[in-house]
Amino acid sequence: MPLDEYRRKRDPRRTPEPIPGDDPAVEGPGHRFVIQEHHARRLHWDVRLERDGVLASWAVPKGLPTDPETVRLAVRTEDHPIEYLEFSGEIPAGEYGGGAMTIWDSGTYETEKWNRREVIVRLSGERASGRFVFIRTDRDGEKDNWLLRRSDRDGARAPLPHDARPMLATPGELPAEGEWWPQVGFGGRRVIVRADGGRVRLTDADGDEVPAPGLRELGPSLGATQALLDAELVGGAEGAYLWIGDVLHADGRDTCALPFRERRALLERLPLEGPRWRLAPVFPGAGPEVLAAAKQQNLPYVVAKDPDSPYEPGRTSSRWVQVETGVAAPEAPARRASTNGFGRATLTNPGKVIYPLTGTTKADVLAYYLAVAEVMLPHLRDRPVTLVRWPDGVERGSFFEKDVSRHAPRWLRTARVGTPGGRSENADFPLVDDAEGLAWAANLAALELHVPQWRVGPRGAQHLPDLVVFDLDPGEGTTVVDCARVAERIAERLADDDLVAYPRTSGGKGMQLYLPVTVSRAEQTSEFAKALAEDMARESPQRVTAVMAKARRRGKVFVDWSQNNPYKTTIASYSLRGRARPTVATPVTWDEVRACRRPDDLVFTAADVPARIAEHGDLLAPLFTEPQRLPRRG
Ligand SMILES: [Mn+2]
C-alpha cells in the first residue's frame, strides 16, 4: 500500500506529522507541490510532488539548483500523504526526521515526463520556478539516488561565483573631507564566505580554503540563501568569530556595482546574526570617535569606506582607507579550556561567544576562572555571592541573581541571608568556596560575582564586617586617573591614623580601596567610611563628592562609602565584568596607582591577569592577615 512505509517510520503519539487512516483512492497526476526546508540531523530540502493521491518525495541535501551548470543529488524517500502539503512543525528529537520543518515554497507544477528513470517537471512557485529534471542513477543499489538539475536559465538570476578575492583598502590617514563610513577592523584574517545550499566555504585573500569548524551552524542558518560575503575571521579555528562587512552577491544578484550604502542595507536584511557571526558595525560619519574607540579597545585599525564605493574584488581601492590605530593585532587566545566543565560542574555550550568583540567564549570564561581560582577563592570564601548573569553574552541583557535555591546543584553550599526590600524576606545565596563553584558560575554565564564586606559562620550566621571599602566612582568628565589622585589622598589621610589601604581597579570605570579591619559593631565600618568621604569632599569640593546624586557628581570623583552597608555588595576581586571586553577587577600596587596618567593604565583584561598573578601573587592577600582597628572619630 502506498503509505505503508510512511506509517511504519512514524509513531502517531510522538510526531506532529499528519498520519492519515486510509490509503488514498485517487489516481493520476496531481498538480500541487511543496518544498520543505528540513533542519534534521543534516539540513536538506524535501521536494514533494502530488501524484496518484500521494506526494512523491525526494530529499535534496543542497536544495534546488539555481542554474543549469549545477547538478545536485536527490534521494528518493517514501511517499508522503497529501496532508503533508501544508505541514510545518517541530518533529521531536529522536523521532524519524527529528528537527524543524518549514515550508520553503509551494505552488503548482506541470509534468512533462514521468517514468521510473526520469521525471521532468515545470514548477511554478514563489521561489522555485522553472524546468527541473530528475534522473535516476541507482548507483549504490541501497539508496534510490537521483540527480537533479535545472534545464532552463532563470534570466533574472546571476550565477553565484565560485570564489572571489577581497577588496583591499589603501593605507592612510582618516580623510578629513567628504562622507565616510568607518568600520572597525579586528585584526583577523580577511575571508570570502560562499554560502550555497545551506553550506558555507571560506577562502582567504589567496583563494585558499580556510577551515572554520566553529562556524558549522552558519550554513544551516542561512538556509537556501546564496551569498558571497566579505568578512573577517578572528581567533583560532575553535574560537573563531566572523565579522561580516560586505556583500558581493546575494540570491541571484551580483551586488558589486551597488554603492556600499546599498550593499550595507542589503546585508542588514540577510539572516546574519548568530552565536559566532554577525555584521561588523559601521558608524557613518563618526570617524574620529570610532578611531579613538578602536584604539581604546586595542583594535588595530579602522577602514573608512566611501558610502558610494563599488566592491572591486581583489583590487586595492582609494575609496577604502585603512587607518592604523598603532595597536598591534590581538593575539588569538592560546589556552583552551577543557570544554566539558570542571569536577561536578558541567559546561553547556562551551563554544558560545560571551564577549563578541574579543571572541571570548564560555569555555574561555571558565578557563580564566580556573586560572585565577587560587587567588580569587579566598576573596569569595564564606561570602554570600550575588551573581550577575549574561546568558546571551554581554551585548544582550543581564540579570542579578541572589536566590539560587531553584537550580543550585546539591553539592553547592548556600547560605540563607536576609534580603530587606527584596521580594522575599531572605534568599539562599551561593557560597563559592572552590573551583567547582567557580565553574558552576561560569556555566551560568555569571560573569560578575559581587560580595558583601562580611562573612558567614559555619552555620550561616552573619559575622561582623572584616573589610572597609571605598568605591571611587568617576563622575561625568572624570576618569580613573582622577580616582587615582583621590585614592592617593585618601591613603595619606589614612596613614595619619596608621591605617593602610590596598588599591584595586573595579574592572569598570573606577577603582576601590580596601582596609582589613576588626570591629565591635556592624555600623562601625560605614560610619568610618562616611566620615572620611565627607572630610575628603570638604577638603576638595571641586573634585570630590560624598553624595550619591548623579547631578552632584559631574566633574568629580564620588567616594561611595555606602557599600559598607551590610546589605550592599561590591564586585569581587578577580571577577570579570560584563562589559565590551573581559575586563577584571584587578588588585594593583600603589606604584601603579601613582603612575596612572591615562585611563588605560589601570585597565586589565582576562588576558593580562594570570601574568600579573605570576609576578605579584595576590596583591590583596594582606586583607586576610593584617586586620586593623579603626580609630574613634568624632
Ligand atoms: Mn526530510
Task: Describe this protein's structure.
The chain has about 625 residues and is α+β, with helices and mostly antiparallel strands. It has three domains: about 5-150, no CATH class; about 170-325, D-amino Acid Aminotransferase, Chain A, domain 1; about 340-400 and about 430-630, DNA primase, PRIM domain. The chain contains ten helices and 35 strands. It has an eight-stranded antiparallel beta barrel. Strands 12, 13, 14, 15, 16 and 17 form a six-stranded mixed beta sheet that branches. Strands 29, 30, 31, 32, 33 and 35 form a six-stranded mixed beta sheet that branches. A hairpin with a 2-residue loop joins strand 12 (about 190-195) and strand 13. Helix 5 packs across helix 6. The N and C termini lie far apart (about 95 Å). Mean pLDDT is about 90; it is low at about 330-340. Bound molecules: manganese (II) ion.
Topology of helices and strands:
Elements: H1 4-8, E1 29-39, E2 43-51, E3 54-60, E4 71-81, E5 89-91, E6 99-114, E7 118-125, E8 129-136, E9 145-150, E10 168-171, E11 181-185, E12 189-196, E13 199-204, H2 218-222, E14 227-234, E15 241-250, E16 253-254, H3 260-269, E17 277-279, H4 287-296, E18 301-305, E19 316-324, E20 341-342, E21 345-346, E22 353-355, E23 360-361, H5 362-380, E24 386-389, E25 399-401, E26 414-418, E27 426-430, H6 435-443, E28 446-451, E29 467-474, H7 480-496, E30 502-505, E31 511-518, H8 524-539, E32 544-545, E33 557-560, E34 570-571, H9 590-595, H10 609-616, E35 628-629
Parallel strand pairs: 10-19, 15-17, 31-35, 32-33
Antiparallel strand pairs: 1-2, 1-6, 2-3, 3-4, 4-9, 5-6, 6-7, 7-8, 8-9, 11-18, 12-13, 12-14, 14-15, 15-16, 18-19, 20-21, 22-23, 24-25, 24-28, 26-27, 28-34, 29-31, 29-33, 30-31
Helix pairs in contact: 5-6
Bound molecules: manganese (II) ion.
